[in-house]
């Protein structure tokens, strides 16, 4: 066995393992205290002063309706679209029939951790963004569990995540799958159809939770500026009006009720979520009960974790044991001063129980404010002269203490396993340094890796790659033009003719780069700027999108046709044509391209299933083709298999891509071919750069919000985590993987007799180039672990780098296995 192959396999297995070790050390799963609060936790004394809790801490309402509208942005209520699309809700806020609060959400802005925050008052760990696709039941204390303990009956309709997190809480329920993002209507109709029964017939419940998903799904597929958003908001407005009318009747009949409308997270301008932009982390919280106490002209800001403690006090149940949130009850109700102060004391005491576990807590400002608040509170209880100034001082002291304790407790929850982190960095750096000794890395690769120390460079990484690519093309053009000029006297010389050709190629590449970088606006600072994709999506005629998709599919068929073996050209053309038709019909179903006349109504499911059948048939044909070809030419196995893998990868990604992004596939092949014909050395680095440039052309960034979730559900009617996750990875990392496959395939064509050596060489270079940035980044993020943007900027980038590196390692392993098989076939026929 070739020792170098064994070493390379070792590196490819150790690298992902080291990455996993680092992630486990950097993102440790927080072991929350599973203690459940009891009635004994409701304080009956403030120091030595006895409190009458039977009058100060009682249920304030008989019914609570919590309506969560997934991805309800702040401006969907307060912006211009809110006034048009949600007139009833806007009027309720305007006349103070509803209280509006601006709610701040902690990243990651995905549903599962946000539900946990709302119900437990605890900030979930960042790694919950990955667990969002496989939730586990909440074992700790939460407001729903407390409500059940105290005899409240709960019902639920909506996102099945609630049932996964709270499997034994709800008496009645009907759930919908949150991950089928192409469903805009049924997913919400399934909730609304239960409203009449629950509001008028079966009114035996005390808590009703509704979680509407349609708005989020439209955002994922069409973005927040789609006309469908306005239609969906009008639908939600009608639902709110329907429930509000019934709540008003109950309140008039002394059947006190509270109706809450809120978003779990917001929505980025690109339509996704998961990041930390203002539009993702700012959502409305609307409370409808009676007359609003606060002035809605100035919105009170609350944290999402404050909801659990506030709901608990409204229901008169113990605040969840691990809660870190602050009650904002005084903004909802005009409370008696004694009750207002008691609720703040209880909340502060409950948070202080955790705060006093910190070392040197007595030296903190929050502790001083807490003791000051209690001292003033006792003085207030022992005097009959209750002036407003004293009351205000007590309230402000309690709130300052709660805010300070919350901030310190949140920062203390972030713990790192430095033993694992050190071991992971050692293995990553060891493998990287060993390979770097034999090859010279371009200065750009090192500068790029070091640039990750700045949050802006992480957010705007695409600018780095666009600059690198443009600089490379300019330098190549300068070099080629210089050669062309120096040989003008030998105009008929072949080299002179070749240099002229290369100049034209480079000019075309530069023009193409300028156009493609405007295909999708990405990053953070300039993501809002107009782009080609946005213009095409907004066209009512869909002509531009149709032409672009058709051009892309024709180019793909042409490229496959010219590279295919003459014997199989017609057969391959037929299969490619059928698969391209399926791709077009898939996008036609989503109303992205012009409809085919007389084509029957379809949901786009069968077309995708036919596509997979064609792919399977093509695979069977390739196996037969390989077996028959090996008999006559045993050296053809690797080349034929690589061509087949390339074709399958390109066709699958074409099916998953947005219609305006399909054009990137043939263009990446053309750009790789043109660049490879100009640059003969260091091809591995050049192809790696091309992969990264096209990765950002696609609209990707280092924000979780730019993940095209819809790609994971193309042609799928049910939630299958492994399949959905695989499709998401294929769609996201299509360009880097395609770059490596093209590099290997062209290397096999160029060096048919030294294939084994060449592929090992380029694979070593490629994996070294990939491990360099993640190795340096693990060191940077360890140093920057206390940075202000560690969770909003640096941590998402770490996840992207981890998946990227793992995907490349897996692909290289597959190629090395193919080389090993080719060698085995050669040896068998000797």
Automatic annotation (TrEMBL):
One of its GO terms (cellular component) is endoplasmic reticulum membrane. InterPro entries: Alkaline_phosphatase_core_sf (IPR017850), Phosphodiest/P_Trfase (IPR002591), PIG-G_N (IPR037674), PIGG/GPI7 (IPR039527), PIGG/GPI7_C (IPR045687). It comes from the Eukaryota. Residues 408-817 form the GPI ethanolamine phosphate transferase 2 C-terminal domain. Keywords: Endoplasmic reticulum, Glycoprotein, GPI-anchor biosynthesis, Membrane, Transferase, Transmembrane, Transmembrane helix. PANTHER family: GPI ETHANOLAMINE PHOSPHATE TRANSFERASE 2 (PTHR23072:SF0), PHOSPHATIDYLINOSITOL GLYCAN-RELATED (PTHR23072). This is GPI ethanolamine phosphate transferase 2. It comes from Dufourea novaeangliae. The lineage of its organism: Eukaryota, Metazoa, Ecdysozoa, Arthropoda, Hexapoda.
């Amino acid at each position: 066995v070739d020792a170098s192959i064994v070493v390379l396999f070792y590196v490819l297995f150790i690298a992902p393992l080291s990455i996993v070790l680092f992630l486990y050390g950097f993102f440790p799963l927080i072991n929350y205290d599973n203690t459940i609060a009891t009635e004994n936790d409701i304080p009956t004394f403030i120091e030595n002063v006895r409190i009458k809790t039977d009058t100060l801490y009682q249920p304030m309402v008989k019914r609570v309706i919590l309506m969560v509208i997934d991805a309800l942005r702040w401006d969907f209520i307060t912006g211009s679209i809110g006034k048009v699309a949600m007139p009833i809700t806007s009027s309720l806020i305007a006349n103070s029939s509803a209280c509006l609060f601006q709610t701040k959400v902690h990243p990651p802005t995905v549903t599962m951790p946000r539900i946990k925050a709302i119900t437990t008052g605890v900030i979930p760990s960042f790694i919950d963004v990955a667990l969002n696709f496989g939730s586990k039941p909440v074992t700790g204390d939460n407001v729903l569990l407390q409500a059940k303990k105290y005899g409240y009956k709960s019902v639920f309709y909506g996102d099945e995540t609630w049932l996964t997190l709270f499997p034994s809480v709800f008496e009645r329920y009907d759930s919908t799958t949150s991950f089928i993002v192409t469903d805009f209507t049924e997913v919400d109709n399934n909730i609304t159809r239960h409203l009449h029964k629950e509001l008028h017939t079966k009114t035996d419940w005390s808590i009703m939770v509704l979680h509407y998903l349609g708005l989020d799904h439209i955002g994922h597929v069409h973005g927040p500026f789609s006309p469908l958003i306005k239609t969906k908001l009008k639908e939600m407005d009608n639902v709110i009006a329907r429930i509000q009318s019934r709540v008003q009747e109950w309140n008039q009949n002394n059947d006190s009720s509270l109706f809450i409308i809120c978003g779990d997270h917001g929505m980025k301008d690109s339509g996704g979520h998961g990041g930390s932009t203002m539009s993702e982390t700012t959502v409305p919280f609307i409370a409808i009960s009676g007359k609003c106490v606060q002035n809605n002209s100035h919105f009170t800001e609350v944290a999402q974790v404050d909801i659990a403690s506030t709901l608990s006090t409204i229901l008169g149940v113990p605040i969840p044991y691990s809660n870190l949130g602050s009650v904002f009850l005084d903004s909802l109700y005009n409370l008696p001063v004694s009750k207002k102060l008691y609720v703040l004391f209880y909340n502060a005491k409950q948070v202080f129980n955790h705060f006093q576990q910190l070392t040197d807590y007595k030296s903190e400002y929050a502790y001083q404010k807490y003791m000051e608040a209690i001292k003033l509170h006792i003085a207030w209880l022992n005097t009959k002269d209750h002036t407003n100034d004293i009351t205000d001082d007590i309230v402000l002291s309690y709130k300052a203490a709660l805010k300070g304790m919350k901030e310190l407790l949140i920062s203390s929850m972030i713990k790192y396993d430095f033993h694992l982190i050190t071991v992971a960095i050692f293995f990553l750096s060891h493998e990287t340094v060993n390979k770097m000794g034999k090859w010279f890395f371009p200065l750009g690769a090192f500068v790029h890796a070091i640039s990750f120390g700045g949050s802006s460079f992480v957010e705007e990484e695409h600018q780095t790659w666009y600059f690198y690519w443009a600089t490379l093309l300019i330098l190549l053009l300068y070099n080629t033009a210089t050669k062309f000029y120096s040989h003008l006297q030998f105009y008929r010389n072949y080299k002179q003719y070749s240099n002229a050709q290369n100049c034209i190629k480079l000019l075309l590449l530069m023009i193409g780069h300028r156009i493609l970088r405007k295909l999708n606006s990405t990053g953070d600072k300039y993501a809002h700027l107009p782009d080609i994709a946005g213009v095409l999506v907004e066209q009512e005629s869909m002509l531009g999108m149709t032409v672009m998709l058709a051009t892309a599919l024709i180019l793909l068929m042409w490229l496959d046709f010219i590279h295919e073996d003459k014997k199989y050209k017609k057969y391959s053309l037929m299969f490619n044509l059928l698969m391209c038709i399926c791709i077009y019909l898939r996008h036609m179903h989503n109303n992205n391209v012009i409809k085919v006349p007389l084509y029957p109504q379809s949901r786009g499911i069968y077309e995708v299933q036919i596509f997979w059948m064609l792919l399977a048939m093509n695979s069977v044909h390739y196996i037969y083709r390989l077996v028959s070809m090996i008999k006559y030419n045993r050296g053809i196995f690797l080349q034929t298999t690589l061509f087949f893998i390339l074709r399958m990868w390109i066709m699958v990604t074409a099916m998953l891509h947005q219609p305006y992004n399909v054009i990137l596939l043939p263009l990446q092949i053309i750009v790789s071919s043109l660049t490879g014909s100009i640059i003969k050395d260091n091809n591995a680095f050049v192809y790696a750069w091309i992969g990264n440039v096209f990765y950002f052309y696609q609209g990707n960034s280092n924000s979780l919000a730019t993940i095209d979730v819809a790609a994971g559900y193309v042609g799928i009617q049910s939630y299958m985590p492994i399949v959905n996750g695989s499709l998401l990875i294929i769609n996201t990392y299509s360009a880097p993987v395609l770059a490596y496959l093209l590099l290997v395939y062209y290397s096999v064509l160029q060096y048919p007799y030294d294939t084994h050596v060449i592929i090992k060489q380029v694979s070593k270079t490629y994996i070294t180039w990939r491990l360099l940035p993640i190795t340096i980044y693990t060191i940077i993020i360890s140093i920057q672990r206390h940075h202000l943007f560690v969770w909003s900027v640096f941590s998402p980038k770490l996840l992207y780098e981890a998946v990227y590196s793992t995907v490349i390692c897996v692909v290289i392993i597959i190629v090395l296995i193919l080389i090993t098989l080719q060698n085995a076939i050669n040896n068998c026929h000797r």
